[in-house]
Amino acid sequence: MNFKLMPHRPPSAAIAPVIRAMAAAGITPNMVSVVGFAGTAAAAALVATGHLFWGGLLLLLASALDFLDGGLARATGQSTKFGGVLDSTLDRLSEAVLLFGIQWYAITHGMTVEAMLSFVAVVGSLMVSYVRARVEAAGGQLTDGIFTRPERVVVLVAALITGYLNVGLWVLAIVSVFTAGQRLWLAQWAVSDAPPRPTRPPRPSRARRLATPRER
Known about the structure:
Elements: H1 12-24, H2 29-48, H3 52-64, H4 69-76, H5 81-108, H6 112-137, H7 149-162, H8 165-192, H9 206-210
Helix pairs in contact: 1-4, 2-3, 2-4, 2-5, 3-7, 5-6, 6-8, 7-8
């Protein structure tokens, strides 16, 4: 069963012209990932200093790049394991940095509830990704979840641009924690369905390795 509120990839026809232009300009997927993270960090700085609207707008633009790096990697044949690790790591850092900016803003303005909610939200968001990583490390696959990164970004952007920060943080905190629990519940089947991991043959003893060909 697939639990998702929204598609995680835009239509190929919508982003194909942009990807072709980026490929022609020599832009690599890793460049896109780094620029997206830098944009989110700048958005966090704007939010921390009280510019919620502009921070939300910049977050929207930076998050749009997250839809392009994977497509660019596939279109140019530059999809690598390290690129996937870099992209996932920067995605986690982006969320943490942005929510830290929100928490800083809340603390400096005496908004205790919002500061606490931002902490719960970042823990819930990281746990959603952590459960998936642990399942994949065990050989399973788990992408289900009603409130994964795209949904969280949409809520944050809407909360910042409209100014309904309190409402957005309540939604983010509650549903992120729920999604982490949902994935943990689904993990028992994802792991049980995973094929057994191959075991390495035992290494020969030192005496065996040092033996001459005649002795072997």
